[in-house]
């Protein structure tokens, strides 16, 4: 038997042209989420209906409930527009699910005003029918243990009892294209998720220091992208080696400026990758005040290495809140695996917290920027990471 899933989205805030774009992008993303199950998506008065093979029902619901823009999803049963048919279907669903559940409520919604009964009339008719068939059921409108919803559409009626929450937000792709600077830490995957939540298509860039960092630390970046891809289908992941740059910085610059200089090189390389891939903004997991490289002065000096827009979605979050989100999106366990990051390899003892731009630029003036950046870009490898 086929599975049918009703997909609801947040229509309230949508107006005019935005609404059309939102629905178009959401339709595209929903199709991409179920295409390998042969799922079909159709638009249906302010909702989407997804149909696919019954054996993939649970998996399809899981996928659909991670598409940004989706507010909630429900597996539904459908009948013709006849009150007797609807009653029979309601009885069938209740028989399957209600054992042990004594309080219930029927909630009807009528999009099709030509249907001859009003919503309260439908609710009452179904409620009393179910009570006759299942004498243990007691109506409780406030806190029912079991809720049966009925939607009267234009051609069919839809019945369901479960609702799985979606992530909300805007469909990925609608707001533009960004590049996430993805370390192996807790913060950057969460920052990427938040950027995607606001409709940004996101590619990722990871800097490594192989062979000073292990292959496993690169695989960690792949694993994190895979977790994020559950929300956006696919994430192109770029990897660049910082080994030569780090060696040069260590040899010719003061140790306490190391992190600032390294970050500025990262931003420049990120800008180069963005140019090639037509990406409009950088996204980082920076969060004011956590570490020496994240004081206002440091963030300022680091930012001045690029002309690109840099988005920092975590700026207003406490660490506890970031960890909570990382757990929710299932990146936390991967992030805390103890593989060394490229920044920890050559980390200076006490980095400056108030770097001066003129001093930083003086040291950069001594470097052969073109060959350092050119050499690093040559190490670029790209992998398309799909969802699990
Ligand atoms: P995270 O948990 O994301 O590593 P953090 O709190 O440890 O963040 P930093 O190590 O100062 O902060 O890094 C700040 C930001 O710089 C990261 O959130 C990330 O966006 C970027 N970044 C740091 N290291 C790397 C790396 N190896 N590859 C790509 N981006 C990086
Ligand atoms: Mg880090």
Commentary on this structure:
- The chain is α/β, with parallel strands linked by helices.
- The protein folds into 2 domains: 2-165, VC0802-like; 176-386, HUPs (Rossmann fold), CATH 3.40.50.620.
- It has helices spanning 16-34, 57-64, 83-97, 119-133, 187-197, 215-229, 243-252, 258-277, 296-303, 319-328, 332-335, 342-345, 357-365, 369-378; strands at 2-9, 40-44, 47-53, 70-79, 103-110, 138-139, 146-152, 157-160, 164-165, 176-181, 200-208, 234-241, 281-283, 309-311, 381-386.
- The strands form 2 sheets. Strands 1, 2, 3, 4, 5, 6, 7, 8 and 9 form a 9-stranded mixed β-sheet that branches. Strands 14-13-10-11-12-15 form a 6-stranded mixed β-sheet, sandwiched between helices.
- The two termini are 25 Å apart.
- The mean pLDDT is 92.
- The site of adenosine-5'-triphosphate (ATP) has 20 residues, from helix 5, strand 11 and helix 12.
CATH topology tier name of the largest domain: Rossmann fold
Number of helices: 14
- Text of the CATH class of the largest domain: Alpha Beta
Rounded radius of gyration (Å): 26 Å
CATH superfamily of the largest domain: HUPs
If you average the pLDDT, what whole number results?
Answer: 92
